[in-house]
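Chapter summary example.
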Amino acid sequence: MPNDTTDRLTSMAVMILALLREGDMHPYEMVRLMRSRRDERLLTITNGTLYHTVGRLRRAGLLDEVGSDREGNRPERTTYSLTDAGRDALITWLRRELSIIDRPAEFRVALAEAHNLESADVIEALRLRREALDEGHGSHRDGLVEARRTGVPEQVLVEFERQEVLLDAELRWIDSLIDRLEAEEFPWGPSAFEYSDRYRAQRKAAQQ
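The structure predicted for these 208 residues follows.
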């Protein structure tokens, strides 16, 4: 799949593709699932944006229409399915965004949808991210030490100090997550929660 297709994916597009890995569904169900999962913490969810994004993904060949239905006085609902190209685009995007450090908003979405990757892929991407973070952390820490040595006022350095603490915390968190994934401490993968009672109830509620 061309890289430019993946590069043009928005966070909303990625979350739609990830939803369709769970099974065929119509946009109304997508919206309800996103809201029930509190995905507003990651991106703004509006019906208009979601429907527009679904149309754009269909034109790009990343999803297909597989049917439509109408119940009572409800508007007709078109059901969509993920294509092979859509699955490849999702996986490529997730691997990339998990590994780089200069797109924090996209990283949060990638982390939320990382279960669409095999654990080995997640570990590999996080190790790449850790290398980049560690390099930045070392430079930041050295700069902070040098600034204090040369007498830069502490009141000017509070933001630098905060960033150093945040970088240190993320490095420790990544190490912990990698250890947990390698130890297989919890089920992982797109089907890991498929048959849970909570998951089935959530899907059923979103379809109403």
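To summarize the output: Residues 118-182 form one domain.
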